[in-house]
Amino acid sequence: MKTKEFELKFIITMFRHVFFFFSIAVFTSQAISAQGENWRVVTNMPTPRHDIASCVVNGKIYAIGGMSHEYNGQKTFFNLVTRFDPENSVWDTCQSMSGPRVGAYACPVNGKIYLFGGRNNFSSPNISNMFIYDTEADTWSTVTNMPWGTSYAAGCMYDNKIYLFGGLEAGSTAWNPSKQVLRYDPETESWDTLAEMNVARSHFTVNVMNNKIYAFGGMNASTNQLTKVVEVYDPSSDTWELNNPAPSYRAMNTSVRFNDRIWILSGAKNVSSYNNSVDIYEPATDSWQCAAAEDLPLIKMWHPASVIHDSMVYLLGGTTASYFLDIPEMIAFDFPVARAQNDTVLPCESFEILFYEDGDIYITPSGIQAEKATIEAATIQQESGTAGQKITLQMEISGSCWIYGIASEGRLDRGYSSLNIISAVTATTDVTANTSDDGTGDCTVEIAIADAIFNDNCPGSTLVWEMSGATNYFWPGQVYTWTFNHGVTKIVYTLKNGSSIISKDSLEVTVLDDEDPQFIVPPTDTVYRSSDCSYDIDPFITGDALNEWDNCATGIEGFILNDNDTNLTGCDTAGYIIRTLRLDDGNGNVVDQIQIIWVLPLPTAIPIIEKIPDFRFYPNPAEDYITVELPATGDISLFDILGREMTGISNVSGKTTISVSELPQGVYFIRVNYGKEFSIEKVLVE
Asked: What is the pTM of this model?
């Protein structure tokens, strides 16, 4: 296990590379193919690494030098040179350099590769030596040194000359950025110093378009500050201008050029955040476009990019954001034949599609990833166009679509451009009400439903709503006030044009039962023991169990929850059982009632009594007192619902008064004993 001291040293050591780390992320080919539909894994590098110098010569991609970083902090710097053949998807090992190199720039010139700058390792100074690799002879040679050493500079070739921009300070081991610009002429082997950039930067990218050189992103590695400044260099006048800044900060990224646009790929957004996004810059209009459909399937930094046949981009190597794990996968992406200019529209709303190449496009529901025949079978709309052409379309649907393209040479681009046609009808939010809201007590609630919001871009469209099997045509689709039953009712709004469905939305009305069920059971019952001391109690509820009139449940029955017989003490002694009965309406409402069952011993002799005398009591309910009138002499007892005697009066005849003012509110029982016979009535104390 790592210690905190080790972690701190590790962070400090790597902080100059503008990284924080959080958790380890392991990427596999399966994980990559599950995301970023437009990218695919081509193959794995023989030796995963980052900080690679790379370029394309005769259709093959060369990966020169670089480094790897292990989880334990161990760094390896390479002099390795490998070559990838896209046609056959195979790697070769070429002649190694004389020493390791990271942060260098490689530029192809007439079948050879010129290698500029870099470092042997992080503690060594920037290198001023320049080397040439002959791809045919597989040999390395030296040439005129640079005026000063640099590393992590950006470079490009323009008008048969090689330009180097910025990078780290000349000849230094520090990480301070530079504004300096150099130009090398391979024919004369001479160097020129040009106008400096406005912003000092390293770890950035440049690209050439329309006779100008564009610089994107970068950072000051000594202060961990990133930039989104875009500078434009005019080689004819040796001057710099500031253009529209990038949408986000970027460093350790790469860029490629395609059809008058520059694609900025992945990299770091700040010292603790990294991205897999793709932004597209259009120099002609100095404008930016977010290309979400082309986002990388994983985060990459320090990864070179190579374009093959002006139609496919390859990204090799690089690292993830987590502990600098080197990425073995080489991923590739086919540039689109065409793409939607505004990728979120309403049905029947106009949108433009720009063709990058000559070819056909197929608009399909998203999720279709197949060969041409399947795509054509699922096509909603098909169009043709030529490179640079813009066409205007409308779609009478809602949902997510993909725009596939077939280039003129037959290349199939799969799902590269998304088109989201948003719903043209929006229902109000779901509604929840209780059965008691309107006080009717009949398990229904009257609810006013607000208008559905819809867009009428499509001429002749009609809004229809359906509820509980009823279809209604109102304009603009108001349900108004409706009586909803207990349960869930779904209201579906459909915008239709004839028989075609343009879009749908729905809401649910949920009516909850918040009424407690009510039932009545006799407060007491009496059983006698048999000669063997046993007794028999009816297992079912004695008397009626009645649903309350406004209860939403039907057909429910009470049941015995439990019997507590702890107050039965012996065969010759009277005792009682506390029975708990329950009524559950199935809607989350439960009510319990208590019944006292007296268990009396077997009487030695049972006198014949023709009639148990009745007694009267009043008032009921009572608040302060109860008046009891007995037809014969008897003993009066007042019990609570648990069978506890609250008061008792013996040998009462005629009329007497019992005070109840000190008793808690609730149900009580008056018991009058006439010798061995008794009578019980229920009284409510308020």
From this structure: 0.56
